[in-house]
Specification:
Elements lengths: L1 E3 H25 L1 H10 L2 H5 L3 H17 L12 H36 L2 E3 L7 H22 L1 H12 L21 H25 L13
Parallel strand pairs: 1-2
Helix pairs in contact: 1-5, 1-6, 1-8, 2-4, 4-5, 6-7, 6-8
């Protein structure tokens, strides 16, 4: 039975990317999460739009970002500048889904390789799942703490990093009314959901490394 340090690093990276991309994809793909925000954030009263109008606008925008459908925001007005921002957003959304799929495929390939007898090296007695979970959790615990301290600042920094040199993410509600149904509290709730799922998944990876081994398992990462 051969143990490989490179194989261990590959498994760790694939596991970390799968958890990261998978956590981010949940609010992207789970539209009922947004629908719950309509009542939780009292969007009908705050915006003056009926619930079906809000849902239709959100769905049409997400269909553009995820599926490449023609851009639109239902009955709500939009501007070319607003559309250009959502085009940039669509690139990030699809990149996340591609990375998640690629990481999942990589883990399946690693499993097949492991079934053939190659084992990941255990750095300091711990497997790649432990290191993927520990390092990813530590990074996001720090990021979450900083964001919680000043979410407004974190929101601005995020856009500066991922949309460098652009200011089309600063919407005029009169021209791009969809911003009224996407308040900052919604993005904050998305961040909480992502971090919570990510930390739970990281915790599962870490705990799995401490499960007593009765026999070699091809499934353990």
């Amino acid at each position: 039975m051969k143990h490989s340090k490179l194989f261990s690093l590959i498994v760790s990276l694939a596991a970390a990317l799968a958890v990261l991309a998978g956590s981010i994809s949940i609010p992207l793909l789970c539209r009922p999460f947004y629908y719950l925000q309509i009542q939780a954030l009292d969007l009908e009263a705050r915006t003056g739009y009926a619930g079906p109008v809000i849902r239709a606008a959100f769905d049409e925008m997400m269909d553009f970002c995820i599926l490449g459908a023609p851009f639109g925001t239902g009955e709500l007005p939009w501007s070319p500048s607003g559309m250009s921002h959502f085009a940039d957003v669509a690139v990030l959304f699809r990149l996340d889904l591609i990375v998640g799929a690629a990481a999942g495929i990589a883990l399946l390939v690693c499993l097949a390789v492991r079934l053939r007898g190659l084992r990941p090296y255990r750095f300091w007695g711990r497997g790649p799942g432990f290191w993927a979970g520990s390092l990813l959790a530590a990074c996001f615990a720090v990021i979450a703490a900083l964001a919680a301290a000043d979410f407004d600042r974190a929101f601005v920094v995020f856009h500066a990093l991922f949309f460098p040199g652009k200011d089309n993410w600063i919407f005029d509600p009169a021209q791009d009314a969809i911003i009224n149904i996407l308040p900052q509290e919604f993005f904050q709730n998305c961040a909480v959901l992502i971090v919570a799922v990510l930390l739970i998944a990281c915790g599962a990876l870490i705990v799995s490394d401490f499960v007593p081994r009765r026999r070699p398992s091809a499934l353990r990462v």
